[in-house]
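Quick illustration, no need to memorize.
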Amino acid sequence: MLSIPYIGHDGRVLTLRFRCLEKHDHQAHFHGKYNSIKDDPPRLYGIADVHRAGDTIDVTEGELDAVVLRMIGLRAVAVPGASLWLGRHRRMLAGFSRVRVWGDPDDSGAAFAAKVCRSLPRSSRSIRLRLGDVSETYQKEGAPALLALAEAGALNVATALGREAA
């Protein structure tokens, strides 16, 4: 199991999630691919980036995708699954001029991106991934492909707001 620490803006560990790295039928082994501590509420991963970002932040479907975006120089938070975007998450991102939403290229990823964008209608745009999720796109095409998608997303938000992207 891979341990994924959720660290607060002050550096304290708030909780842990776990990802099974085995390639097997997770249900047959009585666990999910991702596992949380019992009764732990869903929260945004990487909340420190909310405090470090300028006017743009990226939101991914999954913690490891946020790690990849950070690795290439973007500020990113993650929702720990497509169905776990909550209304309170909107308040944490409401002050950003640009919110780029990176959903996986499947039905649940499209629903995730649509839900986030509906809750932040003035500032958010969905980034369309075609080769796989953020991590898979990075593995196949590298950082330049992700940065080009991010730039296109920033331009789309700026156009919708009636100004040039910075």
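The two ends are 41 Å apart (CA to CA).
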